[in-house]
TrEMBL record:
Gene Ontology molecular function terms on file: DNA-binding transcription factor activity; sequence-specific DNA binding
Pfam families xrefs: HTH_18
InterPro entries cross-referenced by the UniProt entry: Homeodomain-like_sf (IPR009057), HTH_AraC (IPR018060), PchR_regulatory_protein (IPR053142)
Domain of life: Bacteria
Organism listed in the record: Lampropedia puyangensis
Residue intervals of the HTH araC/xylS-type domain: 246-344
Source species taxonomy: Bacteria, Pseudomonadati, Pseudomonadota, Betaproteobacteria, Burkholderiales
The name this protein goes by in its record: Helix-turn-helix transcriptional regulator
Entry keyword annotation includes Electron transport: no
Length: 344
């Protein structure tokens, strides 16, 4: 991993006062990520030493706007080491307002710097987030997690953009860069002055920034995909077939195809062509029935995460009559059991 460390601070850390930032210890850091990470690991043994402060500064995570997770760090590392945490299906956005940081999302290793450029990363299955710690290094970082259950509930784009966003969301480790508008960077920086605001004002500001970041990131994902469509390669799919594929997409995502056999799905979409089936597999790397099976499993995953439903109800939602068969397919798709998803 690239090194973007800064020289260690010469001053010893101070205890928190009205004018100095707080010291954080290993138990507090693990507890400071509600909804963000389901597990947190210290890879360096000395980081778990009782009474040893690891971080000095602000380390705050809030859930806003029906499930968006906003994480803010304005702090200096007090130790060398490494940590990892579990991340679940979502779209991640991360950028620095100041300082530098070494992180990795789903094998995407990033040496972050304050460049007004955000990294957008697709997490399509449970994986690890890795962070390198460097004594004396400071970072002012904002990250936003857009969970899959939020996308299912709140994504309100046109059909082409909707499909483009979901295609990206399912491309595990997919990585885009986005130049954040200057006005939004200013608002993000202002989050770190929120200790001087009242609680209600701070909540409004955090919600506004999270909402604008999510809209900007999702719009960028869609624009990148649609720009490719606007300038198709020589082997592009003919317009008539592309429209038919779009109708099939809309049908699959609407829920109207759930439980239907393939011939009926094709008939409802207005086709019976085997060529369209081949085109679908060419574009998505899987058959229509496999795509629908994955889509229904995703809906079950989101329901387990965001709603109080039983494992059997989730199995029914995914189209399984057997909880055992559902659990097997669920673990194959997401790397964890249905009960594990419900607890995370």
């Amino acid at each position: 991993m690239a090194n973007c460390s800064t020289p260690p601070s010469k001053q010893p850390p101070k205890r928190a006062t009205a004018t100095t930032s707080a010291l954080l210890y290993s138990p507090e850091i693990g507890r400071s990520n509600p909804g963000l990470n389901t597990n947190y690991w210290f890879l360096s043994q000395h980081m778990q030493t009782e009474g040893m402060p690891l971080l000095q500064g602000l380390f705050r995570t809030v859930t806003v706007a029906n499930g968006l997770i906003l994480h803010m760090v304005d702090a200096t590392d007090l130790v060398n080491g490494a940590t990892e945490s579990e991340i679940t299906p979502s779209i991640k956005l991360v950028f620095l307002c100041d300082g530098c940081s070494e992180v990795a999302y789903a094998n995407n290793t990033l040496c972050l710097e304050a460049t007004a450029e955000a990294h957008i990363i697709a997490i399509a299955k449970p994986d690890r987030f890795h962070r390198e710690w460097r004594n004396g290094r400071r970072e002012r970082k904002v990250s936003l997690t857009i969970p899959w259950h939020w996308l299912h509930t709140n994504l309100d784009f046109g059909p082409a953009a909707y499909d483009a966003i979901w295609t990206f969301a399912q491309s595990h480790g997919g990585h885009l860069r986005w130049a954040i508008p200057a006005s939004l960077m200013e608002q993000a920086n202002a989050l770190f002055e929120s200790q001087y605001w009242g609680a209600h004002t701070r909540q409004l500001q955090e919600q506004a920034v999270a909402t604008q970041l999510s809209l900007g990131a999702l719009s960028h994902i869609a624009h990148q995909a649609l720009a490719t469509v606007a300038h198709p390669p020589a082997h592009a799919i003919p317009t008539r077939e592309a429209r038919m594929l779009q109708r099939i997409h809309q049908l699959l995502h609407s829920g109207q195809a759930d439980g239907l056999p393939l011939p009926m799905i094709l008939r409802k979409a207005g086709t019976s062509s085997s060529r369209i089936q081949q085109r679908f597999q060419q574009v998505h790397g899987m058959t229509i029935t496999a795509y629908l099976r994955r889509l229904r499993l995703q809906k079950a995953y989101c329901a387990l995460r965001s709603e109080s439903i039983s494992i059997m109800d989730a199995a029914t939602l995914a189209g399984y009559h057997s909880a055992e068969n559902f659990a097997t397919a669920f673990k194959r798709e997401f790397g964890l059991s249905p009960s594990g998803a419900a607890r995370s």
